[in-house]
Fold:
Amino acid sequence: MSYYLALLSRQDKPIYELKFGSSRQGGDGQPHFDKAMDDLTPFVVHAALDVVDDVQWTTPAMYLKTVDNFYSYMISAFVTAGNIRFMLVHETKNEESIRQFFLDVYDLYVKTLMSPFYRVTDKIQSPAFDTKVRALARKYL
Amino acid sequence: MDPYSYVAASYIRGLVLPVGQIKDFTFQQYLDRLRSASEVRLLDVSPGTSADHLFFNPQGYPNGRLCFDFSTVPIDPEISALFDLDPWRQQLLVVGIAQHRHADKEQLQQSLVLLKKRYPDAIYRKIFVFGVPDDASAADYDIKGVTTIASSSFASLERAMADLASEILYEMSVYAINRKLGSFKSPALKALDQTNVSLAAAKDFRGHHARKSSLGLTKDGTFSTGLTERLKSRQLGRTKKFMGSFYLMAGRLPDALTEFAEAAQILKQSYDHLWFASTLEQIGVCLLLQQFSEVPVTIPSIAKVTVDADSAGKTAKLAAKSAADAAAAAKLATSRLESPRRGASSQDHLDNEMVAEALQTGRSALATFLPLLMDTVLRFFNRCSPESEEMVPQVVYVESSLRFASLLTALRLGGGWNSASLSAIVRNTPQEKNFSPVGPSVMTIEIWCAHTLSPSLEVLPIATTCRFMSALAKLYWRLGLKRKWSFVIRQLIQRLENEFHENDSEATTVLNGLHPSFLKYVLDTIVVVFDWNTLKIEFLRNFYKLCNRPNYRSVAVKAAWQLLSCGVEVLSASEQAQLYHLIRSERDSAPGQYWDPLLLRDITIKPSSGVLSSTTTNGTASNRSSIVGPPDIIYNPFESQNKLEKMVTIVAGERCIINVRLQNPFQFPLDIFELAVVDEEGNKVCSVDQALTLSPNRVSTIPVTFVPREAGVLTVGGIYAHVGGCSGGLFWLRDPLATLFVSRQKQELETPEWPTHTIKARINEGRPSLVLCENSLPKGWAMLLEGERIPFKAEVQNVSTTDAHIASFGFTDSTVEPLKQAIAAPDATRADIYEYEYFLHKRRAVELISQTSKIASGEVAEFEFTLYGKRGINSAAVLLDYGAGEDYTRRLRIPLNITVFPSVELERVDVLAVGLPGDEPELTIVLDLRNAWRESFEVTLWTKDSSDNEVASVTQTIDSQKSSRFLLPLKWNGVSAEKLAQPIPSLSSRQFVVDSKTTQEQIQSFWLREELLKYIGGTWRLSADGELRSGQVELRGLQLSKKMVAVLRTEPLVIQMEVTTPAPLTIESRAVIRTKIVNKTSKKKYGMLRFIPNDTHNILWAGNLQQPVSIEPESEQSVDLEFLPLAWGSYEWTAIYDVIGGGQALLKTPLLLEVPSIK
Structure:
C-alpha cells in the first residue's frame, strides 16, 4: 500500500512531502502508486484542502479523519493550531494508526518550529526530520 | 435550463429552430421571450374535449404546472438508447421561430413539412411567428401548427404557450397510447440496435480502470427465450414508470407519484434493479416538486420500505418522523388542493402557523429522506451486473450523482431547505451565498461529486466527459471551492490533451467549442489558485500543449509566459527555447510585460572621461606620477546616510556612459528590442538605438550613451525594456539586498512593497576638453638605443568652449611599477634602494622642455618633450591635468610606445693603484665596454678631476658584439672620512627607519662608488644611413670590489717617520727623527703633533715631544727631533697628529730602532 504525506503551509505551499509504502504485511516501505496516480497525488491533496477548510470548523479536534476521496484513495487531514495542514493520501481506512502518526509528526513539526533557524512557511529540509518521519511511517503505517 | 438540475425529469424538452429569414440577434431575443414564458400553469390550459386529454387532462390537477425546456441544440444521438428508461430525455417538441416581416404563409407551410421530415421522432411541431403587429389579421397565418404572437403583448405569448401546452398534452396522450403497446428495453439492449452508441458500464465506479462494456448479449438473446412471468411483470412495471414520467412532465404530480409507486413495487419484485432505481429517483423528483408546490408530501411506502431496508439503522428516526408527517399532511391535504395558485394561500381556513409547521416538518423529512433515497438509488445501480441487460450506463449513473450534487449545492448556497433554495432548484433562480450550518456540508456534497469524477469517465466519448466535468466544475465554482474547481479543470485539460493523441477530430470539435478568451480567463484564475509551484507548472505544461494549436496560440502564449515566469528551474533548455520562440512568433498576442521582475540588476553611471574629483596643485608643471585620489571622508555614524551617498560627476554637453546590468536566467538568448534608462517618474532619459541580445544564463552589462544637456542632477530610477514577444514595461531599480532576497524566495514574495531606489549623478557645467591633435612620433612609436635622447612634440587642442588652465604635468612609464615594487621589497639593501630610486627619479623616460599654462578655446598648443632611452622601458605616457577652475580637473593622457635596445654595456671595471710615471694622480681605471648593438660605435670615455676639469679622454671604435678595454688615469682625491661616515641617503620621501643592517664597509663602498661615478663619463656615437645618433654610456652598472675599495680609500692626513742620521745608531750617539705629515685635504690643518717613545728613561731628546704644527692644504710639513739613546736595546717611536676641531692622524706602523750593546 502506498501513502503520500504532505505538510502544507497557510498559503497552500508544501513545506514537506513524502511518498512511502506500508512496511506492514510484508510491504517493502516503498510507494507503489501507478503512474497516473503518482502524478495526481499532489493535485488530489490540493483539491482536498477545500474540504479541510470547511470541515475544520465543525470539530475542535485537530485530526479531521478522512475528508475526501478520489477513486479508491482516501485523504486524511490534520490541522495544526497554526493552520498548517498535514494531508495523507492512503488506500485503506485506518483511522487510529493515522491519528497516532499525525500526532507524532505534529510533535516533530513543533520541534522544528521551535528552531530559531526555521521560519514558518519555509520548506523543512532537515534530514533529521525526514528520517524521523520515515521512522514514524514504518511504526504506524 | 440547467441540464443537470435535480428536476430535469419534469421538463418537456423542446428544440427551437429559426424558420425563414431571421437574424441571429432577433432569434435570440424571441427565444428569450419564449423561455420567459416556459412555465404554464395547468389551470390556464384549456381542457379541450375530455377525449383529447385521455391521460393528461390538465383539470385532473389544476395545481400543477407544465414546464418547457427550450434548447437550440438537438439531442445527442448517443443517448437515444436511454429514451425507454428516461422518456424525459427526448425532445418531444420542435418549435420554429419565424419573424413576421419575412414570413409568408406558403413558406411556413413548407417549413412545417420540413420540420416533420427532419425531426420524425418529435411528437409535435409548432411554428411561432413573432413580431406580428396588433392590427394584423389572424387569417394571414391560418395554418394548423402556426401561432402568431403579437409584438407588444405578453398576454399573447402566454396564451400561445397555454395553447401549446394543451396541444402537446393531447399529443403526449396519443404517443403514450402508442408507446404502451410496445415494449420497453433496457439501454444496454437498445444500444445494440443502434450503431455509434457507446455506453460505459458504471460498475466498479471507484476502481482504477473501468472496463469498456462488452455485453454478453445477443440482439435477440433475452427475448428469444420467450416472455416469462418475470419479464411480463417487468414490462408492466416499465410501462407504469413510463406513464409516471409522462404524468410528471404533464405536471400531474399525484398521478405521477402513484404510477411511480406502483411501478416501483412491480419492478422491485421482478428484480429489475436498473429500472427500479430509476423509478426511485423519479419519486424523489416528485416529492421535491410537491414540496416546492407547498403541497403536503407523503413518501410512498415502497420508497420508504426500500430505503429503510437498505439503511436500517440510519432511518429509524425517519420512520418515526414520517408517521407524524403523514398525520399533518392528511390534515392539510384537503385544504391545499383548493388553492391552485402557487404560493397564494389567501383563502386559508386553517391556521397559518399550522401550515407552516407542517411544511417545515415535511421539508426536514425530505431533507433526511432524499439523501438516503439517492444512496439507495446508487446502491441499486451498483447491484446491476455490468455484463447483462441490466448494465447501468455510465451516463445515467454520473448524471444521477450530478443531479443530486446540484440539489445539495443549491441547498448549501441557500442555507438549507427553504423556499429560496427550492426555487433555485426547480426554477433555476439565481442564488446568493447564504451558508448556514443547516445546509449540507462540503464533505457531503463532495461525496456525490466524487461519484461523478470516476475513472470510467475516461471510456466515455470526449464530448460527454467534457460535459460532465464542466458541470462538476460549475458546481464547485458555485460553491466557491476553487481548488476543487481547478482540479476538475486540470483533469479536463489532461483528458482533452490525451484525446488529441487518440481521436484528433473529436477533440478538435470539443476544443473549437471553447472560446480563447474563456480559456484565458480559466488560465488566469487557475494560476492564482495553484500556489503550489509543482502543480502550477504541471498544469501549465498541459495547458500549453493543449492550446498550442491554430486559433489558440494566443492562449498558449499566455501559458508559456506563465511557465517561464515560474518554472525556469524545472524546464529544460529546449523547452524554454520552444516557449520563447512561440512568445516571439505570436508577438501580437503579447500577454503583458516581460515575466522576470528581476531583469534589471543594477545601473551604474560612469563619470565623464578623465574627470578627477578635485585637485590642489597649481598651474606649474611638476613631474608627478601619482594619481589624485578621492577626497577623504570623515565618517560620522550619526550623520544621515544620504549625505555619504557618493555621486559621480558628469559634464553637460559631453557623452557619458550609463551601464545597465541585465540578467537572463534562461537557457535561450533573450532579445531586447528597446531599452531605455528612465528617471524616477518613468520618463525616458536615454536609450539604446539598436536591438540587443542577452546571452543565456548570465548577467550582461549594456552601456547606454547619455549626453546631459544642462547642469543639475541626473536621477535614474530604472529602465524601460521591451523584451521580445512581450509588451514594453518599466523595471525599477531595486535594493540589491532585496533583490538577493527576492531571487532566493521568489515564490514566497508576499510583500507588495518591494523597495525601489534611485541613483544620482551631478551634472557639471561645461568643462574644457583637450584632445591630442598631433604627436611628432610616427604613429606614437619610438625606437631608442639605451642612453639615447630624442626630442618630440605634441600638439593639443582645446575643443571645448571653455579656456583650459594647465594644472600639472605628470609622466609615467612602464618601469615605474617594477621599480616601486623593488623599492618596497623587504630584503633590498639601502644601496640597492638608492640605486632603484636613482633610476626612478633621476632617469626619466620623458622630460618636459617647453610648455604653456593656458590654452584658450579652440586653440592649439605645442609641447616639447625629450625621450630618454632608459633600459627596460616599453611604454610611457604624458599625463596632462587641466581644468577651468580649481575643482574637477581633467586629465589628458598622451600614450607613447617606446622600444629601447641595448647600446654599449659595461662589462668589467677595475681600479689599479698604479699611477702613470711622474704623474700626480696615482690611480688608473680600467673599463671594459661591449657593443651590444648590430653596428659599430665610436665610444669616448673621459675622466675628470674633482673640479670637473677633464683629465684625460680616450676614443675607440667598438665593432658589433665586440668588447674593448679603456685605460684612463684617475686623478683621485679620495673621499673625506666625514663623508664616508654619513648614512646612505634616500631620494624619495620615505619614512626614516634606523638602519641597523648596513655595515660600515657597505656605506664606504657606496660613497666611494658615488664619488667615482662623478670622475668618469662617456658618450657613444653612431652613424648609420646618414643619420647621426648619439647617447650617453651608462656606467651606473659599475660595482666596486673589495680590492677597488681598498685602492680608492685614501687617508686625508698621512704621517711618515724616518731616521735621517746616516750612521748606525749607537749608545750615546745623536740621531734625528724626521716626521712628515701630508695633508691631502683641501683645507689647512691646525693641530698638535705628539711623539710617543716607548721608553722615556733611557733616552734624552732635544725639544718638545708635543709641537703645534699647521699644514697648508694639499702640502706636507716635516718636523725633526733629535734624540740620544742611553742604553742598548730596542726603541719604538710613534706619532699622533691631533687636528683641532676633530680628526686625527696616527702612524700606523711605529718606527723601530735597534741600539746594539757595546762589546
Q: What stands out?
A: Chain B has 28 helices and 42 strands. The longest strand of chain B covers residues 890-901. Residues 352-383 of chain B form the longest helix (32 residues).
